[in-house]
């Protein structure tokens, strides 16, 4: 499996998205459910936003965390001091676990970056015991991420490359209403429920918003890294203007929606 998420540096990812996935994690855990004594796998753990929230939420027997990126795996390992948690590099579409190993398989902000997202759902179902739960959440890039749409709509107005970025960004897997639910049902999960989870992303300044993207992190940063100096300066100025919206630089807050889905293994 490959991943469409671009990562260079764990600290850059933390500023881009890690701080927001930590904010989202408790809401996702409440939706997915959790009980003392369970064994849980965190699929696509990143730097550990969900992994460590799980450890704080219940007296779990085991938390197995996997990620495709060695950068994320090493960063999460450095943070870990909990003996219940194991972190390893692995493929969400071919997990190194026996059938029915876990009580729950959870994936927070991962499936939309997996080209074969349906196959990842099938793997999550495979490693969960009968009666256990599979749950996932992904951002709604098209209609629920106004801060990021601000950037992609701005660059789309500037160039054909920007328009192509917007198309890729808005139509990633599992992001449309009902899409994850359909995938869960297609993989044989029962009692499937889909809902929305909402948090706010609060930035202190344009630089707080733009720095990780400007450094090349994530799919938007990957695009910025391809620009020549003149186009880069044009994009920087245009996105700054969109962020400031005619007012002095300073704090800005954006409401953001994630689709969440859960189902039971038969």
TrEMBL record:
Q: Name one GO molecular function term.
A: S-adenosylmethionine-dependent methyltransferase activity
Q: InterPro entries annotated for this entry?
A: Methyltransf_11 (IPR013216), SAM-dependent_MTases_sf (IPR029063)
Please list the residue ranges annotated as the Methyltransferase type domain.
Answer: 41-135
- One GO BP: methylation
Keyword entries, A-Z: Methyltransferase, Transferase
What single Pfam family name could you report for this chain, choosing any that match? Methyltransf_11
Q: Does the keyword Transferase apply?
A: yes
Keyword Methyltransferase, does the record have it? yes
Recorded protein name is SAM-dependent methyltransferase
Annotated organism of origin: Sinorhizobium alkalisoli
Q: What is the lineage of its organism?
A: Bacteria, Pseudomonadati, Pseudomonadota, Alphaproteobacteria, Hyphomicrobiales
């Amino acid at each position: 499996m490959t991943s469409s998420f671009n990562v260079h540096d764990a600290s850059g990812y933390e500023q881009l998205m890690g701080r927001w996935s930590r904010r989202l994690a408790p809401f996702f855990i409440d939706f997915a459910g959790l009980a003392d004594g369970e064994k849980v796998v965190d699929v696509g753990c990143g730097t550990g936003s969900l992994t460590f929230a799980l450890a704080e939420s219940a007296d779990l027997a085991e938390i197995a965390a996997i990620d495709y990126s060695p950068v994320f795996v090493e960063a999460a390992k450095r943070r870990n001091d909990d003996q219940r948690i194991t972190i390893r590099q692995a493929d969400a579409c071919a997990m190194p676990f026996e059938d029915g190993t876990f009580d729950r398989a959870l994936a927070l902000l991962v499936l939309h970056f997996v080209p074969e997202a349906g196959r990842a759902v099938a793997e999550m179902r495979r490693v969960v015991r009968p009666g256990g739960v599979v749950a996932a959440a992904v951002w709604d890039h098209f209609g629920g991420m106004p801060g990021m749409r601000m950037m992609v709509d701005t660059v789309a107005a500037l160039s054909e490359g920007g328009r192509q970025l917007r198309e890729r960004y808005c139509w990633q897997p599992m992001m449309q209403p009902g899409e994850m639910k359909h995938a869960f049902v297609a993989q044989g999960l029962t009692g499937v429920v889909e809902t929305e989870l909402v948090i706010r992303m609060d930035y202190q300044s344009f630089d707080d918003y733009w720095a990780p993207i400007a450094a090349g992190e994530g799919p938007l940063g990957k695009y910025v890294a391809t620009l020549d100096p003149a186009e880069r300066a044009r994009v920087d100025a245009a996105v700054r203007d969109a962020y400031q919206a005619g007012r002095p630089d300073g704090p800005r807050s954006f409401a953001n929606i994630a689709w969440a889905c859960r189902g039971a293994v038969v």
